[in-house]
Amino acid sequence: MEFLSRLAALYATLFRKKSVDYTVHQAKGNKGLQKALGAFDLTMLGVGAVIGTGIFVLTGVVAAEHSGPAIVLSFLLSGVACAFAALCYAEFASMIPASGSAYTYGYTVFGELFAWILGWDLILEYGLACSVVASGWSAYFQELIRGFGLHLPTEISSAFNPSTGTYFDLMATVIVFALSLILLSGVKESSRINNIMVLIKIGVVILFIVVGAFYVQPTNWTPFMPFGFDGVVQGAATAFLSYIGFDAVSSASEEVRNPQRDMPIGLLSSLAVCMVLYVAVSLVLTGMVPYTKLNVGDPVAFALRFVHQDWVAGFVSLGAILGITTVLFVMMYGQTRLFFAISRDGLLPKSISRLTKGKKTPVFSILLTWGMATIFSALIPLGELAQLVNIGTLFAFICVSIGVVVLRIKRPDIKRNFKVPFVYVIPFLSVLACGYLMINLTGQTWIRFIIWFVIGLVIYFTFGFRHSELGKRKKQEIHS
């Protein structure tokens, strides 16, 4: 009996939960972040995170290898599937306006250990995403300057790989440093710069749609579904990954002036804008060029060169650079807020969550993100490790979707400014869609994910378990 009581006590300790009221109190107290964002800023964050390599690169690959002109259906299907998860995030974000995204939601629903696992998972997602996107930005920038006859020395043109003569990715380091400086300027200033870049990027995409529409040949849409409906579904599975990134918007909850109203608007409107742009670009792209010719690294610019509109192709190159820049910015922003939230709860060193007095900027979280992204992108060839970004994101989506249902059952009394419609259907469809994508990832990806998971458990039991702020509060309540 003594053993069972100790086991029950250990279980209660590992899965201790933060109440919604306590989480909201944390966000509003002296340790909370500055309230400076509105619905428009959130929408721009979401569009900034999603519209990047997906629209400028992946559209061509999906059309050529999976869907053909039916890529329009692939992006619609994947967008709807992603919307299921977005609805779940919107309910949580309006109910719990605090930094940390899925980590914070998991703390209130599943308890501390599960929250740490989710947080550790998101550190992997954001950290690798920052590195992958920074490396991609470097490659695209170098391709752009080659057009002007400029070349970086081979040694500093890519990550460490002696067999190819590369040792350090200089431009990845430069862009990570520049965006870190922007983040250090404060959330209000950062969001303004992001808004400008996103608006220019949207303008470039619309320019392509308008110009390209005059060169659409309806015969290029025949056959519409050359790979059959199975190809459309496979294309949707690939296209789904183009939408990943909107969840970083929920990291901004604590910095929104009216989160109960603005968070659902920001999450859902950004996803809607991205879906419309993806569908429109896909429709025009496959109408301009036969889908069989679109398996290139720059399909949008290629289509414009194909119809001899080189001047527009130059603007598209600018849009692609800005697109990748804003994706990197939002990923870095999400990472800084995640470090801040976990540190504030004591599961990482408390110094990481220290804020500046004036603008309440988490300086040490930003510096940690800068260091992590710099080392990974400048020195480590990522290759297949990029798939870990996908598995981490999908795992978080599944947990948030399940959490919505669990909290509806356990705490129906909590005020919800936004509710997922058909709550026993939509979260289930979200889990189904994300689960399907997870099981189709490679075995190596799963092994690496499990290794990361084990490392996280070691860190939790050697540090987080003993320094947990919630654990300290529970002890004080017992002894008072």
UniProtKB/TrEMBL annotation:
It comes from the Bacteria. InterPro entries: AA/rel_permease1. Its main location: membrane. The keyword Endoplasmic reticulum does not apply. The keyword Membrane applies. It is a multi-pass membrane protein. It is found in: Membrane. Pfam families: AA_permease_2 (PF13520). GO terms for molecular function: amino acid transmembrane transporter activity. The chain crosses the membrane at residues 42-64, 70-90, 102-119, 167-184, 196-215, 227-246, 267-291, 311-334, 363-382, 388-409, 421-439, 445-465. GO terms for cellular component: membrane. Keywords: Membrane, Transmembrane, Transmembrane helix, Transport. PANTHER family: CATIONIC AMINO ACID TRANSPORTER 4 (PTHR43243:SF4), INNER MEMBRANE TRANSPORTER YGJI-RELATED (PTHR43243). This is Amino acid permease. It comes from Sporolactobacillus inulinus CASD. The lineage of its organism: Bacteria, Bacillati, Bacillota, Bacilli, Bacillales.
